[in-house]
Amino acid sequence: MLGPVILAASRSDRMRRLISAAPVTKQVVDRFIPGETVADIVPIIEELTGRGLELTMDVVGEDITTPEQAAAARDAYLALVERLKDLGLGERVEMSVKLSMFGQALDGGHELALANVRPVVEAAAAIGTTVTLDAEDHTTLDSMFAIHEELRKDFPGTGCVIQAYLFRTEADARRLAAAGSRVRLVKGAYKEPAEVAYQQKSEIDKAYVRILRTLMEGEGYPMVGSHDPRLISIAQELARRAGRKPDEYEFQMLYGIRSDEHLRLAAEGHRMRVYTAYGTDWYGYFMRRLAEKPANLRFFVRSMISKG
């Protein structure tokens, strides 16, 4: 069970320094995070949209300790919106944000995060796109859902993420599966205690299917966040049973993972959105990608050995 160990390491300053200093790390990180700046990422956006894919962009960075850093995060997203406007790709590329990056964990953080994220959501709407609020650890979710509800009053297309491994999520899904909602379902990628979350993969998978059925049978717009071939097939069957057309839900997968599957689903007429992260503060995001799937960790270890 290496996943929990890796997730613990994602919060360790010592491990951050050690892994960041490894010569091979950048080469492996580039598989998942293909750039540090907006300029770096533009060719990726153009390439993927040119191949029939849609994107959701994430500026990585969660360890915010000052209001000034939170404001800088807001400005980074506003710069991204301006570039998308210049590219004329507002309808093909949305944004994903973590409210921790907007100051949620600081004193007065709920109000600060709302104040910082609102201009991003407003700017996104002005170019024809949307913002999805990513889910983080369970202690932040009540604040996230409250901000989501507040933003939807003026920007009803604002989406949110729910995590199948949390016990609370089935109730959250029933509440969110309403007309006009946009909900991304993922398994979950934070270290959570047994008091609030399933710990076994089989339990998480079963919960994922139950929650996905709720979303597909609801009136909102489900976003299926999974690389699991079995869950993708189940999602297609649940959509068929619910009478959903291909444009009434979508699949979402991470940049750098199962890229051939991205193209296959798009070629079959499905909406396929690639979650693409960029930025300099990549460590937490990268470690969660390793924890999610043993193959990602094996890829990293093999790369370190071969370059050692």
Description:
The chain is α/β, with parallel strands linked by helices and 308 residues long. 53% of the residues lie in helices and 13% in strands. The chain has helices at residues 2-9, 13-21, 25-32, 38-50, 67-87, 109-126, 141-154, 169-176, 201-217, 229-241, 259-267, 283-292, 294-307, and strands spanning 54-59, 93-97, 131-133, 159-163, 182-186, 221-225, 250-254, 272-278. An 8-stranded parallel barrel has the order 1-2-3-4-5-6-7-8, surrounded by 7 helices. Helix 12 crosses helix 13 (294-307). The longest helix is centred in the N-terminal third of the chain and has 21 residues, at 67-87. The radius of gyration is 18 Å and the shape is globular. The model is unreliable at 303-308 (pLDDT under 50).
